[in-house]
Amino acid sequence: MKNPFEAITGIKIIKDEPISKHTSFHIGGNAKFFVRIYSIRALKRILKIMKKRKMKYFVIGAGTNVLVSDKGFPGVVIKLNGFFTKIKRRGNLFYCGGGVLIDRLLMNVGEQGYGGAEFLAGIPGTVGGSIMGNAGAFGRSFAEIVDEITIITQKIIEQNLDNKRIGFGYRNSKLKNGTIIILAKIRFAKKRRKNIMAEIKRNLKYRWQRQPVGYSAGSFFKNPLPYSAGKLIEECGLKGLRVGDAEVSTKHGNFIINRGKAKSSDVIELAKRIKKIIRDRKGISLKQEVKILN
Ligand SMILES: Cc1cc2nc3c(=O)[nH]c(=O)nc-3n(C[C@H](O)[C@H](O)[C@H](O)COP(=O)(O)OP(=O)(O)OC[C@H]3O[C@@H](n4cnc5c(N)ncnc54)[C@H](O)[C@@H]3O)c2cc1C
Fold first, then answer.
1. Ligand 1 proximity of 264 Cβ (cutoff 6 Å)
2. Range 157-187 burial, b when 16+ CB lie within 10 A, else e
3. Does the beta carbon of 97 sit less than 6 angstroms from any atom of ligand 1?
4. What is the pLDDT of residues 84-101, one digit of tens each?
5. Digit-coded pLDDT (tens) for 129-142
6. How much distance in Å is there from the Cα of 60 to the middle of ligand 1?
7. Which 3-state string (H, E, C) describes 275-290?
8. What domains can you pick out in the chain, each with its CATH number?
9. pLDDT in tens, 178-199
10. Per the residue annotation, which of 141, 216, 219, 249 is the catalytic one?
11. Residue 202 annotated as catalytic
12. What pLDDT was estimated at residue 9?
């Protein structure tokens, strides 16, 4: 296919780009078009062309909560750069682009003496991806700090949604597929810089001690509250279980690790086996936290 976006400025297009280069699992076939977008104007123009040509698209943040098919994606993968990675402060409200990385946000805000979201330290995603899935840790989540977001809908309408209308739930939101989060208004509190940095450090240390290293997408399953998915998997003796190069981490039962050459199909088969065993032995049905993009 000829490049349909040739006339648009403010973007960078790569044809047949391996999505594996953009996911923490290091898994995924090629995207027909991988497009880096630097401005709202360019984003709207691209969306108009895709709508007219009925092209499929999805937004990728840091790619830390997705499992992309080995067949790749036959449409457009959108990556938000430029304007979408900016952070601006007005009082204790921070206006952050959807492509801002969480750790960068916490450091930027912390340096200015604002905090309150240190519990997010070490989550390797972006603001957009983390709002979409209401990322969190230590029983807390993104929902606590978001005042409002600006989205572009699939119909290419720009809208502001307040916290309630985002519909945050446990590791999810009610935002529709195809919605693009371009900006978030996040509320922080004035705090001592020294205390903020110490808390971030503590939380990072806690993670390094408990999380396995290696290619993964973090916790693969949602916790079937009040139970912990990792504990259930461990109790069933599934640590180390393997399909191809996909392995249940020997350190943390809820992490599936790509030991190097795992295919998406290996991870899916391994997840299927884990689910069946947990259902049979514990009577609990596990649900994936990771978004599967086929
Ligand atoms: C080592 C490790 C540790 C982790 N620890 C945690 C943890 O403690 N807590 C936790 O909740 N998660 C954790 N995760 C999972 C992941 O980091 C989070 O879910 C994160 O919020 C995903 O953000 P992302 O930018 O990588 O999203 P992606 O994986 O890129 O995308 C996730 C979903 O969001 C959509 N999306 C991305 N950006 C946008 C946007 N701008 N607008 C609209 N939709 C968008 C995508 O289309 C996709 O559906 C961990 C992952 C890893 C690898």
1. no
2. eeeebebeebebeebebebeeebbbbbbbbb
3. no
4. 999 999 999 999 999 999
5. 999 999 999 999 99
6. 9
7. HHHHHHHHCCCCCECC
8. 11-82 (3.30.43.10), 86-210 (3.30.465.10), 229-293 (3.90.78.10)
9. 999 999 999 999 999 999 999 9
10. 219
11. no
12. 83
